[in-house]
Amino acid sequence: MSPKLTVVEHPVLADRLSVMRDRSTTHGNFRQALFEAAAIMAVEVARDLPVKEVEIDTPLETTTGLRLRDEVAVVPVLRAGLGMVEGFLRLVPDARVGHVGIYRDEQEHVPIDYYERLPPRLPTARVYVLDPMLATGGSAVHALEKLKQGGAKQLELVCLVAAPQGVEAVQAAHPDVRIWTAAIDRELDENAYIRPGLGDAGDRVFGTA
User: Fold this and answer.
1) Is the pTM of this model over 0.70?
2) Running along the chain, 209 residues long, what does each successive block of 10 average in pLDDT?
3) Distances (CA, A) of 28 to 16, 17, 19, 90, 155
4) Residue 48 phi/psi, 5° resolution?
5) What are phi and psi of 81, to 5 degrees?
6) What share of the chain is helix, strand, coil (3-state, %, to 5)?
7) What residue spans of the chain are helical by DSSP H?
8) Cα(2)–Cα(200) distance, rounded to whole angstroms?
9) How far is 132 from 166, CA to CA, in rounded Å?
């Protein structure tokens, strides 16, 4: 496995992913499971965040502690990526949040932009791009390119379910970007949906299907 690809193994994460895969899961339960899965992923991806020593005045004395050194930004790929934001903000509440709106042309399976709002100070921030599904990789590759154009230098892609084709596409286009996922599924079907997958994450999290 590539050093730039990490499959997170955690029993609770696996349980939440199974809830999300189940076609009988309601949109409310899907949304909750996505939030909980994202929170677990946030803990894992944040393990190597750099820290700095700071002096702290406790109620009793002065001591030395650690604080995060760099700014953190999370950038969901709209729509489905929005369901992962709260899980990350529970861990890093001061993180800045940007948005990249991309939809997939269902005929050509190519990404199309419709919205972009990026936070300031991207060049010095650790930037996590959030998208539950990494299928063809087109949207992820496009979003990462937009962020690099915006000045981001420390980029990581966080998803929950990935297809081998999507992983390969991101690694080919952005070999410097680390990919985090909870599972690598079997394949893409003729409609570019991940199999076995979990369906359309955006529709399921927002109850629009």
Assistant:
1) yes
2) 87 97 95 97 95 96 95 94 96 95 74 88 95 94 95 97 97 97 96 92 88
3) 13, 15, 12, 19, 30
4) -105, 15
5) -60, -25
6) 35, 30, 35
7) 11-21, 27-45, 82-91, 138-149, 164-173, 201-206
8) 27
9) 12
